[in-house]
Request: fold
Amino acid sequence: LNAAPERAPRQRVRFLPAPAPGGGGAVELLPTRVPVLADHPLVRGPRFRKLKIGVGHRLDVKASGVFVLGIGHGNKLLTDLYNCHLTKVYTVGGLFGKATDDFSDTGNLVEKTTFDHITREKLERILAVIQGTNQKALLMYSNIDMKTQEAYELAVKGLIRPMGKSPPIITAVRCLQFALPEFQLEIHCLHETQQYLRKMVHEVGLELKSSAVCTQVRRIRDGVFTVDDALPRTQWNLQSIQEAIRNCQLKVETELEKTL
Amino acid sequence: RRGLGVAAGPPSTRQLREAEEAAPVFQYAGKAAKRKDRVFVWGFSYSGALGIPSFVRPDAGWKKPRRIQPTPYRLETEEKISSAACGYGFTLLASNTRDITKVWGMGLNKDSQLGFQRSRRDQTKGYEYVLEPSPIPLPLEKPQQTRVLQVSCGRAHSLVLTDSEGVFTMGNNSYGQCGRKVVEDEIYSGSHLIHQLKEFDSRVVQVVCGQDHSLFRTKKGTVYACGWGADGQTGLGHYNITSVPTKLHGDIAGVNIIQVSSYGDCCLAVSDEGDVFGWGNSEYLQLASVTETTQVNVPRHLPFNIGKVKEAACGGTGNVVLTEEGNVFVWGYGILGKGPNLIETAVPEMIPPSLFGWSDFSPDTRVAHVRCGLSQFAALTNKGELFVWGKNLRGCLGTGRKEDQYFPWRVTVPGEVVDVACGVDHMVSMVRSF
Reply:
């Protein structure tokens, strides 16, 4: 960043004494544009010494995926994005047959169970129940009076969302892959932590009268930012960052205007 | 020397893996584990209609009686219940078994709508409130062969449909709703009389109780009615009471009716081609699309352009139909399910499917059945979820909240809901466990 061409130094008008044309000795004041010495690079030093980077929604050590950062003045947008309460999408991979103390496959083993009675339909039934109970929580925590007509209209469009603090709520779950003993779910949620998602996998295992651990948590979408916009490790350089910021700016602005 | 006094230290990866493989495997459910069928009840419990005696008479001295059960509560039954019906303060449960006891009843029994329940204190008298599901003795000729197909309950009478022995009726008969001649000053409380009806043109396949009248649908598609007719709900062309089941004509003559429904004083019938016919009370604009009068005593075809109708359900003041595509239409008066602004309409209005769990994620979710209580509606989806809306009278909606519900709301039941029966202030649902 510091190597980038800098702004030209400010100019100001100063009245400098200069020898007058004709007649020796008399000094006239001539207005000239002179660069301000305070703006000189050698005086001022490098433009950027530190950068303020703010972080969006948290991501665990064991999880991976889209991680939103804000730079400099973008940090103000971060709080606005947080207040939008947009849903995040995760792909969660699970394994039947084991139960560990921290719900992931690297923890201490608690129990092993059989899982050959589990079918895809049973799993989808459980997911439908989870969605149902979370739908109720969605409506309850959104603090909208259920008796009004606008509550009905928002419910029809599916736009009711808690706009304040709330416990983790799952708006949609879908089974992507099912190959015993492994399975993969796509979860859309609000206000959650990755440990909550692992606990959810464990509870799905319990409901199916078996046990399950979570092998993978990957965030594929955080509000408006998807995996396509995200920069992998190889692209952490200035050009791609600037390009990514430019691409996302429009999306962020429209989303903020829509919600607030 | 071997270091016997050396501490174990953290287990290495190989030790962890070996310990894991050596761990015992527990089996909680085998491959052939069957899903169990359960019954859940909720609503007003003081009448005994929920069938749980500890709600009315607590078993411990410090416990308080529970007047309202706001969320679904499991009711233990001995047999698998295949059909249930909720009346005005009482419930009937029927099982498809060949055992001698096929029907259980609980709740109000002041008009012997649950048959004669011999009191243990006094052998000559019967119970007026039955707090637990008690078997109803039916006078069957072949009790170990006949199966009970369906039960239905009205305000103070009930009907039991069997597969080979016709229809049994019990309860109040002051308007002839039990299908037998009205006896002046008959005392219904503690009565042993259960009447059997067999004379229909073909086998009866569905029985429906209105508030004080009864409807019978036969295999040939004809409808018979008896009972009170002051609102024209018997559909026989007059406003008098009928004490013998009589065939209905009007617009349904010659039409193959596949479903009949009634709960209050209005009746709806669905034909095999998807047409809807209505008769009875129309004070709440239920039949206002064909007539301005408030009582219709002959079945009339209701010309709605909503598609082929699969199922219809009548409530006290509002009606609901389900079309072949899975759309739900409501009309009438009261809380219809489209927000607080829609109080009454004579023309059916559709409830958006997104309120029943339809979304881009699950585009194949659709409503499979609709049921009506007196001022509540219930809808069952093909995913096994139950949605209710309407007046929350004494907690009958089962949502856990006391307020009325103006749009469809999910009821959390631990299982897949197979069928639901709605009453005035309580509901019974048959659920299969996961």
Summary: Residues 120-141 of chain A form the longest helix (22 residues). The mean pLDDT of chain A is 83. Chain A touches chain B at residues 97, 109, 111-114, 116-117, 122, 125-126, 128-129, 131-133, 135-136, 139, 146-149, 151-153, 155-158, 172, 174, 207-210 (CB under 8 Å). Helices of chain A lie at 41-44, 74-84, 120-141, 149-157, 194-207, 238-259.
